[in-house]
Amino acid sequence: MNILGLWHDWSGPLEWGFAMASGWAAKAGRYRLQSQSNRLSAGEQALKLVAASQEREMALTVSYERLVALEATARVHAIATADVLQTVYEQAIGARLRVHDLEAKAGITLTVFTPLPPFPVPEAPQSDALDVNNEALKAV
Predict the structure, then answer these.
(1) 3 state DSSP class of 128
(2) This protein's superkingdom (predicted)?
């Protein structure tokens, strides 16, 4: 038996088997590359989601810090306003007493002044919505 004759007799089935094996290997390689690409796509999506959440967190942090600064400014302004209002009340009461004193010395009937609004100003009642929000924040 010579090799050329053996090759001529068995070349068809061998080529067919080799074609099947190479086709199967190519399909397996393509499937592997596709799954690897899918994993990379999923990784890229996860990285994009993380980046988006970090951007949102940064924006919320900046907004929160701005609101805290605004609240601190409002508190300082409210304290200064309360101090000025207290001074005005003191002067108004002093002026009333002085007018009453002068009227008493002159023998004139005492002037009836309209009552001053209450001081310090009573705090406004908080709404239920604020209480619900505070409880929701405490739960977090």
Answers:
(1) helix
(2) Bacteria
The one-letter code for the residue type at 122 is P
| Structure-token pair, residue 109 | 């009937």
Whether omega for the bond prior to residue 115 falls within 30 degrees of 0, making it cis, is no
Q: What is the pLDDT of residues 29-69, one digit of tens each?
A: 888 888 877 776 777 788 888 899 999 999 999 999 999 99
- Let me know: does 18 contact 26? Beta carbons within 8 Å: no
Grouping H, G, I as helix, E, B as strand and the rest as coil, residue 121 is: coil
Each residue's pLDDT tens digit, 19-33:
888 888 888 888 888
- Token pair 């003191």: residue: 90
Phi-psi region of 109 (alpha: psi -120 to 50; beta: other; left: phi over 0): beta
Tokens of 25: 């290997």
CA atoms within 13 A on the CB side of 126: 7
